[in-house]
Amino acid sequence: MQETLRPRTVEEVRSAIEWAVASETPLALRGHGSKEAYGRPVRATHALELSGLSGIIDYEPAELVLTLRTGTPIAEVEALVAQNGQELSFEPMDLGPLLGLTEGAGSIGGVIAANLSGPRRIKAGAARDHILGCEAVSGRAEIFRAGGKVVKNVTGYDLPRALCGSFGTLAVATEVTLKVNPKPESSATFCLRGLGEAQGIAALCEAMGSSAEVSGAAHLPDGLEIGEGALTLLRLEGFPTSIDYRFDILLKRLGHLGTPERLGSDATAQVWRRIRDCQPLASGEAPVWKISVPPASGAAYVAALRNRFDVKVIHDWSGGLIWLRCEDGRHHADEIRAALAAVGGGHATLVRASAAERRDVPVFQPQPAALAALSARLKHQFDPVGILNPGRMVADVPAKVEKA
Amino acid sequence: MTAIAMPAPDASVLARRREIVATLREIVPGEGVIDDETEMRPYETDALTAYRQMPLIVVLPETVEQVSQVLRYCHENGIKVVPRGAGTSLSGGALPLADGVLMSMMKFNQVLDIDFANRTATVQPGVTNLGVTRAVEHEGFYYAPDPSSQIACSVGGNIAENSGGVHCLKYGLTTNNVLGLEMVLITGEVIRLGGKHLDSEGYDLLALMTGSEGLLGVVTEVTLRILQKPETARALLVGFPTSEDGGRCVAEIIAAGIIPGGMEMMDKLAIDAAEAFVNAGYPLDVEALLIVELDGPEAEVNDLIDRVEAIALKNAASHIRISTSEEERMVFWAGRKAAFPAVGRISPDYLCMDGTIPRKELPKVLARMRELSDKHGLRVANVFHAGDGNLHPLILYDANLPGELEAAEAFGADILRLCVEVGGVLTGEHGVGIEKRDLMPEMFSEDDLKQQQRVKCAFDEKHLLNPGKVFPVLHRCAELGRMHVHKGKLPFPDIPRF
């Protein structure tokens, strides 16, 4: 049985880590526990839960900057910025549906630790593109600050950004400053039906290369639990006059592929939320992969796999993000990763799988030796004893440390 | 030479110079190794010209293999290396070391791949920032970050400094526009980060490399995101009776949900100098001048121009002009873009500072800066990236007058302390380099700086790459790695446990 420590202040976090260092006790880090089934299983007798570090520290809408404690529920954050006509424009996805958990759970710290984003990532960037600063406690039990509270800042190494996607293996972030943006006044979706995968993704790439300022570009092949037939979807957001104008730009570029439907703001919000959260692939328990490839290669990549086993996919990010479910229930890790080379590289992450599979199959893309060694050295510099989420990303080798 | 001290040269390395030259010539044949004093002279400084230092040797590799071999040799033999791009750093980031090899990357000047379907450009690091846009503009694309040195500055240097420009509020900094890198570690190992796909597969080392000021590795290839050029761009030129009015106008534009492509402010002295230089038609009876550029689809831009005009009028604007042609828009910008040389005409020398502040603090910071100007007896002109809070005070001085450079530096340090005091940072886009190195403790605690240096230790344990930059005190990695462990009773009896 895991014992849970619930610090309420950064000083309590520091003191918990100090104890863990002294007693060489590995800690499993947790916000609200919504992503525990994402990543390799952590073997730890103790959990460090950060839900007690909650609350907004500073929010000035006119500065487009939000500083908050990392245990703050993501739902609370999104509601707060929405009240002020703003949003987190990286559109963090909710892993709840895919992992069979409650929707809307999780903390902002979890979003940062997993570098979650959504369909708008192709235009606005990921979580890592919106972090400006942080306060954190390293695995050396030292509190450090990095970055700042302004957008433009090159004072020192960009540690806040490096903590994004590090799954709590480098440091425990206790406070972050994020860039927020105005929420678009309205939105619409340009929707084409019945295109094949290659044709659909080519249309997405063409739209992304136009001046239509597309903020979501997805292709949903036939046979998914969403509507009838294949859907090719392009989202437009902004001022209403601008959306009409840009819809016409898309019509001129893509009208030859069929007569588009236009979804209004409500339908747009609904469909893109489903895509964001990978809902069309959420049912069942078959393994689900998140695969990042050069966008224009999305169709070729999936076609190569379809020849070998049965898959269902969603193409987001103009083809650059593939959510892939293995219909036979097997993980196919080797084939999925081997196929990346033929399309010019990329990486595949096993997002949904049993704990045994996540222990035995590399969840994150294995790295070439020199890069893996550099990453291990970085981990060691932040967490020399290996107490922060050991094994969450890669199977750690505990290092010997000189203790004074 | 002023007060900022560089690490003492290693006498044993100086004594081996001839042998080092010979070895480097074996690795980089032909004219790629320079040891002649006259030929090395152009490398003794970058754009922070108050500091000069002749390097031990200059090497200009042409292949990744040569970069790798040079670095491996230097690593094995304890020789320092200073990487250099186009040498446009305003913070002394490429200042050579007397006992260090200066590695110029300017022979890496090829555009390797343009991929419009994936919207990427892959280039060598010596390609200029503007060169990227030149390579893709025939299809209507461009590369968004546009530092004012974009004609000359290299992409590799942009990575090192995380360069910005006037468009970063809307389009991001270099770090938001880099997709992949090939780089060589000091050990000679070649690694690749990212590519044409999005997000990193492990730790975000791209984030650490971008803005690392040449301390972590030598970049040999860069994959950048390119964007379709906005269909239209129009600008408003707005004059205000006080900087408070201008600051309030900026805040209200943002609060209205408008993110302009560019939003620049100038103070009275900068306006006067720019107008005298380029005759852009700037009003001379205002205290603050704001240029707001809106870009995007035509229908949107026209709509937003009206909205911004209404906000400006509400905030006491005394003068408004709206560009009706591309020519007129360029004239609006001509004064702003020439602000630095314009200030150069009214003063023998100037020091360009680079702090960032929360936007709302602008009036307070300008008022305090006027007090500091009186205190130091030097004039200051201000240009301000109002959208992102990045302030460029230009301190006017005369290097020929004894003590004036020192006074200007002291004034500059006071300004940067002020930026930190109001919640800002020491440098927005010029980098720490040597210029702001000794001010780092104003913003960071010792623990903050030690954790940053531990990142350096993961990449370059012997401190051979560009030492003496960024960090005021160099700690040995062994010392940084030591842990002070408090044994005994659990030190957190109050933490709730379940």
TrEMBL record, chain A:
Keywords: FAD, Flavoprotein, Oxidoreductase. Its EC number is 1.1.99.14. InterPro entries: FAD-bd_PCMH, FAD-bd_PCMH-like_sf, FAD-bd_PCMH_sub2, FAD-linked_Oxase-like_C, Oxid_FAD_bind_N. GO terms for molecular function: glycolate dehydrogenase activity. Residues 1-183 form the FAD-binding PCMH-type domain. It is an enzyme of class 1 (oxidoreductase). PROSITE patterns: FAD_PCMH (PS51387). The keyword Nucleotide-binding does not apply. This is Glycolate oxidase subunit GlcE. It comes from Roseibium aestuarii. The lineage of its organism: Bacteria, Pseudomonadati, Pseudomonadota, Alphaproteobacteria, Hyphomicrobiales. The gene is glcE.
Automatic annotation (TrEMBL), chain B:
PROSITE patterns: FAD_PCMH (PS51387). SUPFAM superfamilies: FAD-binding/transporter-associated domain-like, FAD-linked oxidases, C-terminal domain. Keywords: FAD, Flavoprotein, Oxidoreductase. Residues 51-229 form the FAD-binding PCMH-type domain. It holds the Pfam family FAD-oxidase_C. Its cofactor is FAD. InterPro entries: FAD-bd_oxidored_4_C (IPR004113), FAD-bd_PCMH (IPR016166), FAD-bd_PCMH-like_sf (IPR036318), FAD-bd_PCMH_sub2 (IPR016169), FAD-linked_Oxase-like_C (IPR016164), FAD-linked_OxidoTrans_Type4 (IPR051914), Oxid_FAD_bind_N (IPR006094), Vanillyl_alc_oxidase_C-sub2 (IPR016171). This is FAD-linked oxidase C-terminal domain-containing protein. The lineage of its organism: Bacteria, Pseudomonadati, Pseudomonadota, Alphaproteobacteria, Hyphomicrobiales.
